[in-house]
């Protein structure tokens, strides 16, 4: 099953809770690229990693991986043992603002819900997912949506078309807590977000009046992102260039897949060492 990369088309911060977590409004879409998970029955829980970014997780204790925690959490709720072996193909850069780990956790919840015949609804699975991380409930839904509160308040959004997207990761990691710490108010005022978009033009017109509130602090921590974002904005056919989540992945949206592909070639020429990926954000 594909654990789809998550993209924050915009991310506004509207306040901060007493526990330090920030209140958000963020419109999210999911791409047709991501990690891949496969499961099979096993006497004991097991997690095997493969793929381009598996080595980056080699030093991590497997029991701490969000996939293992998600499997244990669901097994606990369902009062059964996590008798499952998971193979995780790690294709997305780690800590990239693409929700990779969250998508992996959500994916294992959806796979196990089916494999164990638990019949939890998506909303129930999203509730079970919430303690695992702010983005995991959204990734359980795996469709265009608006995230509010600290991420657990979800309103599905009907975006009726696919959106060509160029994803660029500079292959360095930005820590989410560090980026939030570098963020300084004033907070954004809460905005009305349409529940459906029926054309690319309507979506781009709406997004023009939004931003990613974490972009400024991320660029302070990693000034090279400023240059990259400017270059992404200047590419032929680029309609919006922005940071996703807390970075360091930046993205550009295009009207056509052709423009997107040509832009990818250009960026890869400029930055041979960067992770450059074209994709489609999936409409419903
Ligand atoms: O929930 P998650 O593990 O993704 O959050 C990582 C960190 O990001 C939190 O520890 C917190 O510092 C910050 N965060 C925040 N407000 C949010 C989500 C995350 O301050 N809504």
Mean pLDDT: 97
Helix-strand pattern: EEEHEHHHEEEEHEHHHEEHE
Shape field = globular
How many strands, which pairing sense, and closed or not: the largest β-sheet? 6 strands, mixed
Q: Your description of this structure?
A:
- This protein is of the alpha+beta class and 284 residues long.
- It has nine helices and twelve strands.
- The strands form three sheets. Strands 1, 2, 3, 4, 5 and 6 form a six-stranded mixed sheet that branches. Strands 10-11-8-12 form a four-stranded antiparallel sheet, with helices on both faces. It has a two-stranded parallel sheet with strand order 7-9.
- Helix 2 crosses helix 3 and helix 5 packs across helix 7.
- The longest helix is centred in the middle third of the chain and has 16 residues.
- Bound molecules: cytidine-5'-monophosphate.
- Cytidine-5'-monophosphate binds next to strand 2 and helix 5.
């Amino acid at each position: 099953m594909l654990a789809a990369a998550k993209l924050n088309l915009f991310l506004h911060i509207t306040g901060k809770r007493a526990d330090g977590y920030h209140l958000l409004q963020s419109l999210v879409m999911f791409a047709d690229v991501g990690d891949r998970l496969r499961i099979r029955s096993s006497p004991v829980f097991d997690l095997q990693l493969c793929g381009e970014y598996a080595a980056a997780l080699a030093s991590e204790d497997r029991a701490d991986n969000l996939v293992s925690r998600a499997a244990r959490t669901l097994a606990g709720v369902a009062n059964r043992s996590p008798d499952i072996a998971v193979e995780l193909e790690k294709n997305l850069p780690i800590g990239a603002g693409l929700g990779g780990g969250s998508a992996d956790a959500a994916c294992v919840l959806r796979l196990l819900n089916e494999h164990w015949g638990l019949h939890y609804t998506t909303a129930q699975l999203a509730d079970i997912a919430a303690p695992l991380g702010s983005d995991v409930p959204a990734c359980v839904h795996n469709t265009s949506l608006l995230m509010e509160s600290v991420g657990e308040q979800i309103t599905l959004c009907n975006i009726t078309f696919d959106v060509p997207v160029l994803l660029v990761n500079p292959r360095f990691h930005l820590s989410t807590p560090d980026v939030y710490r570098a963020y300084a108010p004033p907070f954004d005022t809460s905005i009305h977000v349409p529940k459906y978009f029926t054309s690319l033009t309507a979506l781009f017109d709406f997004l023009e009046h939004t931003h990613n509130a974490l972009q400024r602090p991320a660029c302070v921590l990693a000034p090279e992102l400023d240059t990259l974002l400017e270059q992404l904005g200047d590419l032929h056919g680029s309609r919006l260039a922005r940071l996703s989540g807390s970075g360091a992945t930046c993205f550009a949206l295009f009207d056509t897949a052709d423009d997107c592909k040509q832009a990818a070639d250009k960026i890869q020429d400029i930055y041979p060492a960067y992770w450059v990926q074209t994709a489609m954000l999936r409409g419903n």
